[in-house]
């Protein structure tokens, strides 16, 4: 049998992890033949709750789950990790300013970046889910100077999946038949779900649907507001679908995306007018354990306007945490 893969997960007592951990242990990330070890991090006051989740993991008798470590020490959690899901973060409390939220999380990701730098395997794959996910990932990478920046990513896959379903329904095509969809920018209401290149069965979705007003005034804002709609309906934020998106993100990065575009938050190289160094949602193609950014797209005026909005927001976030970038 192969050597077990070590998967670090932060925020293990939280609601996303209550869906995520069971799917990792079932084999949904690495596949049905790969044993895994879970290395679970949460705050000291959440340790008892994490142990409760571990009891439930045990009660599933997952054949692939060979060990589970529970800790409040990031260095222990990230030790020799092959993959890491950064789900835990500080939620906004009552009366907290956006700037305070940014800096509270920046401090968490600074500490965890140093631990990642010290303890994880150099080829570990990292995805940041905890909000503000893009900027947290940027801080994490900046504080892990000996760890490859390319291996630190943020999650925008939930938004990608949300857009896929809405486009498929409107076009009357199967979700799996859509390719070349992109979700650009920040995982926030400024994100840009972009159908310009999207196709199904060789035809542009914009031609099949043929309703630019629906695209601009319904699809784009509905994808951006979907998280709020779920909170209103469920009384809690998206959890199972967020866990599923994190699994999709990591699974495709490891196993490939079959030539298809998927959206990932990655370190900007300056392409497509995105300022270098921002962690930015872009279309990529995953192959052989890595991802390649889709390059050479040219944008129309509408796209440029949408890109400018989400770039400006991420630059503001970068400004707010500048002191903690390294
Ligand atoms: P919960 O509040 O249920 O769980 C968060 C867990 O993180 C708690 O157990 C808490 O103790 C732990 N935690 C806090 N600070 C920590 C630290 N420094 N180290 C380790 N653990 C720490 O939140 P949940 O619903 O699970 O959501 C987790 C995060 O995902 C939130 O930041 C949320 O905003 C974000 N989301 C991101 C999404 C994305 O697409 N990128 C979508 C879903 C979700 O909203």
Automatic annotation (TrEMBL):
Active site: 187
Classification via Gene3D superfamilies: Lactate dehydrogenase/glycoside hydrolase, family 4, C-terminal (3.90.110.10), NAD(P)-binding Rossmann-like Domain (3.40.50.720)
Lactate/malate dehydrogenase C-terminal domain residues: 157-323
Binding site for substrate: 92, 98, 131, 162
GO molecular function terms attached to this record: L-malate dehydrogenase (NAD+) activity
Record-annotated Lactate/malate dehydrogenase N-terminal domain positions: 6-146
Reaction catalysis annotation: (S)-malate + NAD(+) = oxaloacetate + NADH + H(+)
Residue sites binding NAD(+) per the record: 11-17, 105, 112, 129-131
SUPFAM superfamilies: LDH C-terminal domain-like, NAD(P)-binding Rossmann-fold domains
Entry keywords, A to Z: NAD, Oxidoreductase, Tricarboxylic acid cycle
InterPro entries: L-lactate/malate_DH, Lactate/malate_DH_C, Lactate/malate_DH_N, Lactate_DH/Glyco_Ohase_4_C, Malate_DH_type2, NAD(P)-bd_dom_sf
E.C. code: 1.1.1.37
The keyword Ligase is annotated on this UniProt entry: no
The protein's role, per its UniProt record: Catalyzes the reversible oxidation of malate to oxaloacetate.
HAMAP family associated with the record: Malate_dehydrog_2 (MF_01517)
Protein family per UniProt: Belongs to the LDH/MDH superfamily. MDH type 2 family.
Name the UniProt record assigns to this protein: Malate dehydrogenase
Organism the protein comes from: Acidimangrovimonas pyrenivorans
